Amino acid sequence: MSTSHSSSMSDAATIPSTWPLGPLLGFDTETTGVDPSGDRLVTAALVWRAEPQADGVRPQSVTTWLADPGVEIPEAAAAVHGVTTERARAEGRPVTEVLAEVSEHLVAAMAAGTPVVAFNASYDLTLMEAELARHGLPTMRSRLGRELGPIADPLVLDRAVDRYRRGKRRLGDLCEVYGVRVDEALHTAEVDVTATLDVLEALTAAHPQLSELDPDELVAFQARAHRTWAESFNEWLARKNPSRTPAQTAWPLPDSPHALIPSGCPAAQPARYARTQEPAGSLRPAP
User: Are 145 and 244 in contact (CB under 8 A)?
Assistant: First the structure.
């Protein structure tokens, strides 16, 4: 099952630059667990958000998918996102169809240079690549012929610009920090995506230096920022809780090469993404 609808939102904040103004493609998944390499897709949502119009309104369209993952959905996961095994089997589409459609939109956006926005993007993108490979479908990297990007992850960006702020950094926490109002409960994919886009908008308004990054620089910048955070966290973890699995240092995928380049090295200048010509409508979730 997939559904779509269109809406618009007022651009209340004045954002001082280009890429945060859009177009942007927000992305989120809900799954069978917390292991992106081994767990399965249950729902996905894409929110295409356009540039502000003359009246300040930013049109957006939302498309959601419900998949039958082909395995049991644990009760703990169903308690988070509300989709049981029985519902997925009765209402969900074959997961291969959902994976093919969602990845098609993500690849089209990246190929056109449109940032894909996801909170904790490493989880969702790792899950997508693992699921595509598991079901014998082309991965997004193979279709692009390069690494994934551009990507904007408010979690990574927030850690980069406000590293020493105390407290947790879940999506709900960042909504509070940046004054983003969420009228519905989080942990449905489409609500999470909209909140993530709103947090990104407020985050880049509060820290305009992020807006000065070229979209082509986003992945390399965040890969370095994530590695800085992960190495510091892992040092703390080794002292406080050495039995816990350390944080992955590569970003956005476990084997991404970006984080292998030392921060501050002259060779760390990000390569420009080769853009391909895409039909204008290809970035928008299918109605």
Answer: no
